[in-house]
Amino acid sequence: MNFEPILPSQSTSVASLNHRASEVCSPGFEPQLQGAETEKTAAQAERFSELENSFYEWRDGLDTTHPLNLPRYQQVVGSTEDFLSIVEKAVVVDGYSDPLAFVQSLSRGELATLKAIHSTGDLDPSTMTKEGALNLILPASERQDIDNDGFVERGHGVGWSFPPVNASQSVHDAWEQATEGMSESEKMLAQGMFLPSMIRLDEVNGQVVRVERSEANNPYARPNFPFGSLIDQRLENMEAFKFDMKPEQYEFQKDFLTRFGEALSFAGLN
Fold it and tell me: What pTM does this model have?
């Protein structure tokens, strides 16, 4: 059921929110608004506003310069209103406290909206993890890594990005500064320099084998990981293998790592 979003400028009473929660909740998911205080109502409206603004920021940043990206953008735009209705519902009924139960309560149409927004395959809430369900009802820019393994589940899919979701804001700010003006393809190349190792050498038979996520060599997930020291080491290693790299690859990586290292140093992250 569609309804108008709660805007920050609107004054919404507790009774109104309780009524709205009863309207939008599907059977099996009970709203947690009984006895709510006015302050909580204001907090809910503020939280929805934050998520709404974050979503629009993410949507506006989608790459539309290449014709192949236009269908994806149009799909997101066409599903925006319905997605924000789901987000608002989750805020009003406290669906983020138990995202699995909340996603399981959604209609087929609402699941189709989540599929369209996140470009996922078919969704079966009964086989999802808590993290996979949570990230379906959050804007992509707000995704969370609950178990801090360096990977992010959304629906049934698993993604990876750099800097890690749980890295400090200072690291993310340094990354934004270093990647400013770069194309999406250049940013992907920069991220590729930090891909975790998903293979290992089997000491018994000497074969290279794929490892599971729980065994992956993903050191960036460690608390207080020294990103500044990592960049220094990468630059040193590059010089050692300079003549094994294509000149353009060497120049791109050296230039980017230098900029990123300077941004980290300026932020005191040596």
Answer: 0.74
- The mean of the pLDDT values for the chain is 82
Same domain, 19 and 122: yes
The C-alpha R_g of the chain, in whole angstroms, comes to 22
Domain containing residue 235: 169-192+219-266
Asked, for residue 227, whether it belongs to a domain, the answer is: yes
- The model's pLDDT over 52-102, given as tens digits with 9 standing for 90+, comes to 999 999 999 887 777 878 899 999 999 999 999 999 999 999 999 999 999
107 and 53 within one domain: yes
Please, which contacts does 143-150 make with residues 24 or more away whose CB atoms are closer than 8 Å? 145/221, 148/221, 149/213, 149/214, 149/216, 149/218, 149/221, 150/196, 150/216, 150/218, 150/220, 150/221
Are 26 and 115 contained in the same domain? yes
Question: Per residue in 150-194, pLDDT tens?
Answer: 889 999 999 888 898 988 999 999 999 999 999 888 999 999 898
